[in-house]
Design a protein that fits this description.
Structural class of chain A: mainly alpha
Order of helices and strands of chain A: EHHHHHHHEHH
Oligomer: heterodimer
Largest interface: A-B, 54 and 57 residues
Distance between the termini of chain B: 59 Å
Strand content of chain B: 15-25%
Largest sheet of chain A: 2 strands, antiparallel
Number of strands of chain A: 2
Helix content of chain A: 55-70%
Number of helices of chain A: 9
Strand content of chain A: under 5%
CATH class of chain A: Mainly Alpha
Strand order of the largest sheet of chain A: 1-2
Amino acid sequence: MDTKNAILRTKFFDRMCHWIMVACFFLVAMSGLSWFFPSLNWLGNVLGTPQTARILHPFLGTVVFCLLIVMFFRFVHHNLPVKTDVVWFKNVVGVLMNRHGPKLQIGKYNAGQKILFWGIMSLISVLFMTGIVAWRAYFAAYFPIPVIRIALLAHSLAGLGLILLVVGHIYMGLWVRGSITGMLTGYVSRAWAKQHHDRWYEEKIAPTADKTAKPHS
Amino acid sequence: MSMQSQDIIRRSATNGITPSPQARSHTEEVAKLIDVSLCTGCKGCQVACSEWNDLRDEVGENVGVYDNPADLTPETWTVIRFDEVEDETGRLEWLLRKEGCMHCAEPGCLKACPSPGAIVQFANGIVDFQSEQCIGCGYCVAGCPFDVPRISKKDNRAYKCTLCADRVAVGQEPACVKTCPTGAISFGSKADMKQLAANRIEELKGRGHEGAGLYDPAGVGGTHVMYVLTHADKPQMYHRLPENPYISPIVRGWKEWLKPVGALGFVATLAGAFAHYVGVGPNTTEDIEHSEPALAPDEEHHSEGSE
């Protein structure tokens, strides 16, 4: 990667957070799906025997939750709604149809990514709280059975929602070339930045051109 | 316990396309009939259960009532419940009920269980936990309308009354039935037990027990453990025996509704993503890099081809 002409988009610490979480999330999601769709029981084998998977699932889920909490505080300021998000929404069809027309004034993350951010953060919170309620052998005994029933339904619902969101997230990463490299190395090309996040690109470039270093990721 | 010599009509976490062994056509539905009016609360059934099933629960402490142990546990699969009630005239009455798995025709535990084959229902109606397949998730606890399964702290697996599936499979009655000294527990075909109950209820009514009746709740498709209750109109008096037990709609929603909707969601998401990629193609920046060589004044050396 030509780092001289590329732009640092994601710092090492954040990248590590992201990829450790990916590894844990993969294992948690596969084991969770193995119980939700018993015909896909083999998915649980990623964590060993069914019994081992059942023991590890909540611990790994807690790791995912903790990493997401860290990432929440590191990314939230980029994901607050801004007025220009409306521009992206108005042009969402064009964006999806790969038509690169007008400048959409997209900051570090576009409106769709912001929805993903808040979706992931709220769903993981639901998963964590309901997961605690259903967690044998440590916590479930402290909750009445009707509460556990609601928790199990909500956990499944939130789990499905989160996995589907993540499938969309993965697809977007595959579709928008340069994104996965960006998350692996941290760097994106200037063309990538200008095309997908024009406002962020200008904010990043401006200080370099003016020679006024501004500490901003 | 695993009983390959019996037909299995339901198997947890297994779809209907792959049925379990079904070849034995001559299996009769069995039932245990517990006549609470004959029970003296001697707890002989509890001892016989521990004896036959090799269970030796820890000796607990008296909590001020006759129920001993105080509740079902992973190593106590049946408990005699003692309820002191007063009738309209202020007369004291002991209501005794032998609590344990009801062996529902539509078992909530089996519906909730995510581990293939950890819970089975034999053609004779017995619902049995196959402990070696149990993963200890506790979904059966959430699924059961009677609050019967218990998770062991020793091995993290669920346990409950097996209706002595092993004894029944070889033509014997459950251990509790064999040992009951007053004849309060009977065992046989479900049809015979219903007939026996009907005779007994008539007798009880003749003796002034107007509320006498059979507890075989339809909400769970009937049960393979039935009670003759002297107050069948008020089953809750017998240690909160539910009047109309049914599988919670939340459990049904989770297993019957959310599962197909979730599967549809997956298919739609994956198919949509695939169609999008095939239709729209990758989103690259190559065109910009070729048509606009100078993106910014300081970008003469721009090169991204080797990424």
